């Protein structure tokens, strides 16, 4: 009886080990293979990023397209006399992007001499928390989403728009006042004013091309 029980236990352990090994192989196979829809989404994202990378140098064209979409949205709101909640949400989102665009990437509270100032002897470009391209891309996506939402009657909520306008102006003034106070406190400018030049000292003279001055 003991020998039979030992053999039975050995057989069950070996069968359990085989089952677990088959399960592990099956899980590895399922983990290695991605669904077709995920592959298509990833491929579409790579193509979109490829075309977006080509538009980095076209700064004026990018912002002109945003301005055109903004004009269409403003005309839609004015002619329809509705979608004020969508316009308010778009304004708050744009204000958040603009504040991040003006904010430095490095917090001056934690690191000193990290920001370019007027008194700085060397030229250092201003590093933003939100770069210009990401600022445009976020703004463009927001205005396109607002345009699409303005075509759906569900988002045309009844609201007294002067209250939303007054509240937005109040938030804008407080936010910009705090940002300007931060600039004055740490004495930095959120724009690149260009590299300093030194006039005649920056010119390189080639020997033999000075004319009468070389004699």
Write the layout of secondary structure elements.
Blueprint: H1 2-32, H2 36-54, H3 59-80, H4 84-102, H5 132-149, H6 161-186
Helix pairs in contact: 3-5, 4-5, 4-6
Q: Top keywords for this entry?
A:
single chain, 215 residues, mainly alpha, 6 helices, 63% helix, 0% strand, globular
What spatial form do the alpha-carbon principal axes imply? Answer: globular
Radius of gyration: 31 Å
Overall pLDDT metric: 76
Q: Main β-sheet: number of strands, strand sense, barrel status? A: none
Low-confidence spans: pLDDT under 50, at least 5 residues?
Answer: 15-19, 195-204
**First-residue to last-residue Cα separation:** 120 Å
Our estimate of the beta-strand percent is under 5%
Strand tally is 0
Residues in helix, %: 55-70%
- Classification by helices and strands: mainly alpha
Order of helices and strands: HHHHHH
The number of helical runs is 6
Architecture overview:
- This protein is an all-alpha fold.
- Helix content is 63%, strand content 0%.
- It contains six helices and no strands.
- It has helices spanning 2-32, 36-54, 59-80, 84-102, 132-149, 161-186.
- Helix 3 (59-80) runs parallel beside helix 5 (132-149), helix 4 (84-102) runs antiparallel to helix 5 (132-149) and helix 4 (84-102) packs parallel to helix 6 (161-186).
Structure described in brief:
By secondary structure, this protein is an all-alpha fold. It is built from six helices and no strands. Helix 4 (84-102) packs antiparallel against helix 5 and helix 4 (84-102) packs parallel to helix 6.
């Amino acid at each position: 009886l003991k020998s039979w029980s030992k053999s039975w236990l050995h057989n069950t352990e070996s069968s359990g080990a085989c089952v677990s090994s088959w399960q592990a192989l099956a899980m590895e196979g399922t983990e290695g293979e991605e669904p077709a829809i995920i592959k298509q989404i990833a491929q579409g994202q790579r193509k979109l990023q490829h075309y977006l990378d080509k538009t980095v140098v076209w700064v004026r064209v990018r912002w002109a397209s945003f301005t055109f979409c903004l004009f269409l949205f403003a005309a839609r709101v004015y002619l329809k006399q509705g979608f004020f909640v969508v316009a308010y949400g778009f304004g708050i989102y744009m204000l958040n992007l603009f504040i991040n665009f003006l904010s430095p990437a490095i917090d001056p509270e934690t690191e000193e001499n990290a920001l370019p100032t007027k008194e700085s002897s060397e030229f250092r470009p201003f590093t933003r928390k939100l770069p210009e391209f990401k600022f445009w891309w976020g703004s463009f996506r927001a205005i396109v989403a607002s345009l699409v939402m303005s075509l759906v009657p569900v988002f045309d909520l009844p609201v007294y728009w002067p209250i939303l306008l007054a509240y937005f102006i109040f938030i804008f003034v407080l936010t910009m006042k705090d940002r300007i106070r931060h600039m004055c406190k740490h004495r930095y400018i959120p724009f690149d004013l260009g590299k300093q030049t030194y006039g005649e000292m920056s010119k390189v003279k080639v020997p033999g091309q000075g004319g009468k001055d070389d004699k």
